[in-house]
Fold Glycerol-3-phosphate dehydrogenase.
Amino acid sequence: MASKDETFRTPAAQGGPLDLLVVGGGINGTGIARDAAGRGASVLLVEQDDLASYTSSASTKLIHGGLRYLEYYEFRLVREALMERERLLRIAPHIIWPMRFVLPYTPQARPAWMLRLGLFLYDHLAPNMTLPKCKSLDFRTNSAGKPLNGTLARGFAYSDGWVQDSRLVVLNAMDAKAHGADIRTRTRLVQARRVNGLWEAVIENTRDGSQATVQAKVLVNAGGPWVSEVLRERAQVDSDKNVRLVKGSHIVVPRLFDGPQAYILQNPDKRIVFAIPYEQKFTLIGTTDVPWAQAPGRVEISPEEISYLCESVSRYFTKPVTPDDVVWSYAGVRPLYDDAAKNASAVTRDYVLDVDTQGNQAPMLSIFGGKITTYRKLAEHALEKLQPFLPVLSAPGWTADQVLPGGDLGAGGFDGAVSRLAAKAPFLDAQLCWRLVRNYGSRAGEIVGDARSMADMGEQFGGGLSAREVEYLIAHEWAQTTEDILWRRSRMGLHVTDEDAGRLDTYLRGRQPVAAKSAS
């Protein structure tokens, strides 16, 4: 990276300042960078760690309208989310797919009429819904009742979507780069100040400590849990808007039930918990809502949260879940807009976009709140607010119908793409072929390349993860560390041994200078 006194320029800027400096490499930051770059703006995005390191990889991994948000009269948010669900299913069919959710009826939680009304609204708030609508279930005859403990006779089923959340972030970053954006991971904003109608910002490579000065017409604060810190401490901007941090935690246990369906379970405290098929062999259970008053960053699930989630599931299923069953857990801090709600579960999941110009100075847009389902629409709204300051953003919106990298699956959709990869590389076993297409879509063939055997795929790191896949992730997806690769790119963290992970770590250390250069 450049020295501290050097001013960074992109070719698109043609010697002048950047149009946008985006701070934050989560779903909102990468979504805005993609949309803006596609409209012709020069964009630099900086992320202090890896893409999707924090909140955006710690979700319940749902593309959904938010059924329970209807209880808080969030009709606009639910309608927008349901419409976005349809769009995202179209533009990223390799990493987003439909899922059926089973909602057991328990009279102690919510009355049946309320559930029926909510599900009716859920099916009809958004036009042109393509997923199967809600229907009633008799657990005495329907297979969805088999895993349940027999005390529940009926329930409902409705549709939503599942997403590989961290891969959605990476694909947006890849498409932003394809449209000319500069994406810099392991790069943090040190400080920013307004100088002669522009933002002048110092950014720092967190690996070697080198710094550079960049100039931009607009600063976009997509810092997520750090939005207030970026606003007040690094940019020295006062604001009356605040973010409310809420920790959400999940556990993963060996598979609790057969079938592709998920379960949405009502608790006596009126909260809901999901039990979702995960990585073929497991069940994902979450989430909690715990107010978080400490600094954002790496967070872990507490013993109390583990007990809460285990009890929530054991209340419904024949097979009880105990803390000893937990094979993995993760937690993240959600940056919700502070609407003064007393209950963390009732805090709005809607977003607020705040533009600060301090008179008539260089604008700064800060994002408070939001959810992964509505990131694309949030980006459109953000650019609408910035159009008066950047005429280039007045170009038509384009992201609603343009597939994300790998999403052009071709004839036969996902299954057709799997069949074509299997024909191209018959040496791949069926599970590996399926996983490569599920992760990379039509780009899976780029990983296989001219390989004619598994030996040609290079060193193996367990579960079918090969050196070729690792090199692809380093070259095209900003992966640098073992954690990046196993948990946020390949999704192989649960499928490899500690020995496998150690060999991958050794492999990466042996070529780390190349990895850092490729990701810059």
Observations:
- The domain at 413-511 is CATH 1.10.8.870 (Helicase, Ruva Protein; domain 3).
- The chain has three domains: 18-54+167-242+349-393, 97-163+244-337, 413-511.
- The two ends are 8 Å apart (CA to CA).
- The chain is about 30% helix and 25% strand.
